[in-house]
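Minimal example, chain plus adenosine-5'-triphosphate.
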Amino acid sequence: MFNKSSSSPPAPSERAPRARLAGLCAGYPGRPVLRQLTCRIPALAVTALVGPNGSGKSTLLGVLAGVIRPTSGDLDLGGERPPAFVPQRGAVADALPLTVRQAVEMGRWGERGPWRRLNRRDRLIVDAALDRLGVADLAPRQLGELSGGQRQRALIAQGLAQQSDLLLLDEPTTGLDPEARERITALLAELVADGVTVVHATHDLEAARSAEACLLLREGRLAGHGDPGRVLTASALAEVWAVAGPAGP
Ligand SMILES: Nc1ncnc2c1ncn2[C@@H]1O[C@H](COP(=O)(O)OP(=O)(O)OP(=O)(O)O)[C@@H](O)[C@H]1O
C-alpha cells in the first residue's frame, strides 16, 4: 500500500544526465578557473550553480554554452541543438533601442541569421515564447523601460525562442524583489515540465534550494553536488564562504 508508485519519476541523480563533466578544467588565458570538475547535470531538472563571487559559476555556464573551451578533461553534452544561453541582466545594455518582441526575435538569429527575415514558423515560435513567459502584452514596449522582473522574463523568452532543450541562465533573479524572484523560480520549474533542462547560476539560496540539483563551487572546485537539501547545509555554506571571505552568501 505504501509502495512507491511505479510511475513516479526517478530522482534526478538516477536520470540520464543531460551533461557529463569529467576532470574538466577551464579558464581564461593565463587564468585557470575551473579545476577538475567531475559531475553530471541531470536531464529535465533545474540545476542551480551556487558559490561565492569569483568561484567560477559564470565560467562554467560559458563552458556549457560552448563559448569557453575546456583546457583539459571532458565535457559530454548530448542533445541535438546547441544550448540557449541567457547572460546576466547587466550584460544587456538597458539603453539598447529594442522592443521586447525584437529582443525575443533575436533568439531566432542562430537558425535564421540576423539579416534574413523571420518566416511564419519563427514568428509562431516567438509568439509562443512571449506567451510562455507572460510578456506578450509587453511586446511593443522598449526593453529599457521595463521593470527588472519583466526584462528578465523577456530575456528568458529570448532563450526559449532558441528552442533548445538546455537553457543556461546567469543569475536570472539577481536584483529582483522577492515576488519577481519567486515568479522566475516557478517559471524555471514549469519550463522543465515543458521538456527543458535548466541550469542557472544564483546567489539566491531560496531559489537554489527549490532546484532539484545543485553544484556548489569553491574557488573553481566542486565542494558538493546533488540534492540541494543535502548539499547546501549551513556548515557547507559557512565553510565555502569562509574561504571566500567575510561577505557571506
Ligand atoms: N573574461 C575574463 N578574463 C579573465 N578572467 C576572468 C574573466 N571572466 C572572469 N574571470 C575571472 O574568473 C574567475 C571566476 O569568475 P566567474 O565570473 O566565473 O565567477 P562567478 O562565480 O560567476 O562570480 P559572480 O558570482 O561574481 O558572478 C574570477 O576570478 C574572475 O575574475
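Strands lie at 17-28, 31-42, 46-50, 72-77, 84-86, 166-170, 197-201, 213-218, 221-226. The two ends are 43 Å apart (CA to CA).
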